[in-house]
Amino acid sequence: MFQADAKKPIGGNIIAHMSTTRLGLRKGRGETRICKVHQSPSLPEAEATFAITPGGIDDAPE
């Protein structure tokens, strides 16, 4: 059985059509977060991991 993609852009269709770069954020393990470039005219589709710490945003632990 297939399910529809439950992800919806914040701001609806107006923001989705006005922006040129679309990023998706999701929670990883622990304090790790993952940012994915979904659509961009100048960047390839890719993912980057990072961690939110008391000191700010840091590289994700390996």
From TrEMBL:
Q: What's any GO biological process attached to this entry?
A: DNA strand invasion
Q: Pfam families in the record, alphabetically?
A: Rad51
Is the keyword Cell cycle in the record? no
RecA family profile domain: from which residue to which, for each copy?
A: 1-62
Q: Which SUPFAM superfamilies match?
A: P-loop containing nucleoside triphosphate hydrolases (SSF52540)
Question: What InterPro entries does the annotation carry?
Answer: P-loop_NTPase, Rad51_C, RecA_monomer-monomer_interface
The answer, when asked if Secreted is one of the entry's keywords, is no
Q: What is any one of the record's Gene Ontology cellular component terms? A: condensed nuclear chromosome
MF annotations from Gene Ontology: ATP binding; ATP-dependent activity, acting on DNA; DNA strand exchange activity; double-stranded DNA binding; single-stranded DNA binding
| Keywords for this protein | ATP-binding, Nucleotide-binding
Question: Per its record, how is this protein called by name?
Answer: RecA family profile 2 domain-containing protein
Annotated organism of origin: Oesophagostomum dentatum (Nodular worm)
Taxonomy of origin reads: Eukaryota, Metazoa, Ecdysozoa, Nematoda, Chromadorea
